[in-house]
Design goal:
heterodimer, A: mainly beta, three-stranded antiparallel beta sheet, B: mainly beta, six-stranded mixed beta sheet, four-stranded antiparallel beta sheet
Amino acid sequence: QSALTQPASVSGSLGQSITISCTGTSSDVGFYDYVSWFQQHPGEAPRLIIYDVNKRPSGVSSRFSGSKSGITASLTISGLQAEDEADYYCISYTRSSPFDLLGTGTKVSVL
Amino acid sequence: EVQLVQSGAEVKKPGESLKISCKGSGYEFIYYWIGWLRQMPGKGLEWMGVIYPGDSQATYMPSFEGQVTISVDRSTGTAYLQWRSLKASDTAIYYCARRPGSFGLDYWGQGTLVTVSS
């Protein structure tokens, strides 16, 4: 099962905006509006921050936003803060497997 | 409040067996799939398998088929991940997570660190 492609690392300064990409194919990201994003701080479990491409669960900061264009989904973090330093994973529905496709993960560093 | 609470860290020797748990609360346990994922040291997340508590139907990723067993106890609202014979390469953090329908994961357990070393 192929993984969704994410950049290994993205960095930004405090207060900046950054965008993390998640690239799939026309059979998964490009076909369904079922993309989620997770944030994982070191030593902690992943936490859902975006679902259905651009919806935020209750309690998640509005600085996190999601979008999709073609076969690429994106997570944007606005007004970057120190606590945003973490690993981020995307996940997409695919009808070719009972298991959703997971992204390779992106390490966000705050300079 | 939805919670998934996993059992504590384990240290085992190669060849030993192990069963770790994931107890759900705050929702109707039998109606939501539970997934198990592995995270090896410094690596990303990998699917191992999923189980539907309503009928105990489990589906495994090919790379884990025959290596682990996923089960549930509906009476206690608990899912399990089991090994018959551990290997050093099973050293990892194992997470359970709830699937809110046919796609995705919403609530996660805190993770169980399994260390296999002679």
